[in-house]
Amino acid sequence: MQRKDLLLEPVKHIRINGKLTVDQLVQQFKNSGSFGAGRLASACDIYERMVRDDECTIFLALAGAVVPAGMRSLIADLIRKRYVDVVVSTGANMVHDTIEALGDHHYKGHWFVDDYMLYKYHIYRIYDVFVPEEAFVKLDYKLSEIFDEIADENKGKSLSSREFAWELGKRLKDSNSILRAAYESDVPLFLPALRDSEFGFIHWLHASKKSRKRALLVDAFKDVPEIVGMCQRSARNGMVVIGGGVPRNTIQSAALASKKGMDYAVIVTMDRPETGGLSGSTLEETVSWGKVKNRANKVMVIGDAMVVFPLMVASVMERLGERFKRKPAFGGKQKR
Amino acid sequence: MKKPENRQRFCGNCGNHNAYDYPDRIFCTRRYAKDEDPVVETLWCCGEWNPSSQECYCVEEANNKRNSK
User: Fold this and answer.
1) What pLDDT digit, counting tens, does each position of A259-307 carry?
2) What global pTM score does this model have?
3) How distant is the Cα of A141 from the closest Cα of chain B, in angstroms?
4) CB spacing of A120 vs B32 below 8 angstroms
């Protein structure tokens, strides 16, 4: 490489003249090409490529408390439009999705508050979002009955976490629910860390009932061949990661096990790589494992997903236009 | 603020209490496990009462609400 090759494209300065659409603003970010602005613009370009690629299966990883913070309807809409093909989420995000599906709410609160006072009022805090304890208790009560029903219907047969999510989505009526949208749109939704959420304690409640003869069985290992098979059958694979953690690694590991490696990758995180934790690990580090291809279209955006992801989706939807219809990666009923 | 009356035998200061309809009703996991109606009044009490480690406003507010009626 020669010196002149390093000085090809000058930074164009951002201009804000009057009204701008989201994508026009993102194009200004692209003109700058620098820091977070450049990374966000690249993320939009890569996500647009994924959506336009008919042979790409798009995996969405959901970690962090984005559902209680207000990203629930956005994710449900992406599922219904088939701008994602497979969702892998923390159990907690689906717990909060179910809380709202059952009619309860999350509330705008504040991070600067007397937490012991909240404790005494039975109110839980997620940074600046408040959830009343009743929302969880009513969820526990209602879902333990639903767990009874699922266990009875399945007569001792164990379910994968995808099948469990499908059963749950089938029983929720709220069209804004992510679980319901996945059920209606036939989009597989995996919950690899299901036990590490309120679902685990609901199962305890359900199984502890004196009259309960047979408890619901979910086998986390059943997820593995299912998700690896999805990667294997796809000509290309792409991932959009919000946060990281177990959902990110579930997707990446499936790409590795299928000997494919991701062709597209967008990660939105605020975590750092120095601790060796997965959520902050760079995409280059992921290349070393073979989970993401070296030549993949990839970018990591360092920023708050609650700001970055809606901007990204709005920009790409604007580019695609209202008439755009994406071919679903999976068709037919996917329960069994 | 007045200290909650933790020593009184109420469901609302039992070790098994969780808010169900704050401050009036609570959810009792022990009753649930025994197939009995788990939603009970905060100011009710059963023979299995055991003192709670949680200091909360349930009993105090339920009492205030009852007295103001």
Assistant:
1) 999 999 999 999 999 999 999 999 999 999 999 999 999 999 999 999 9
2) 0.95
3) 9
4) no
Residue of A nearest to B20 (CA): A134
H or E segment to which residue A126 belongs:
strand A123-126
Which of the residues A30, A170, A260, A291 is marked catalytic?
A: A291
* Spacing of C-alpha A15 from chain mean position: 33
Work out the pLDDT band at B31, boundaries 50, 70, 90. very high
- Whether B5 contacts chain A with CB within 8 A: no
DSSP A254-323: HHHHTT--EEEEEEEE---STT--GGG--HHHHHHHTSEEEEEEEEEEES-HHHHHHHHHHHHHHHH-TT
> Quick one: pLDDT band at residue A336, thresholds 50, 70, 90?
very low
- A235 vs B: CB within 8 A: no
Facing residues of A236 across strands? A56
Q: Answer whether A209 sits within 8 Å of B33, measured CB to CB.
A: yes
**What Å distances lie between residue A274 and A281, A291, A317, CA to CA?**
8, 20, 35
- Cα separation, A202 vs B51, in Å, equals 24
Question: Which of B22, B39, B54 comes nearest A132 by C-beta?
Answer: B22
Using the Cβ of B22 and the Cβ atoms of chain A, whether some distance falls under 8 Å is answered with yes
Verify whether residue A291 is a known catalytic residue.
yes
Q: How far is CA A250 from CA A97, A221, A232, A301, B34, in A?
A: 21, 11, 14, 20, 39
DSSP A18: S
Tell me if residue A8 falls in helix, strand or coil: coil
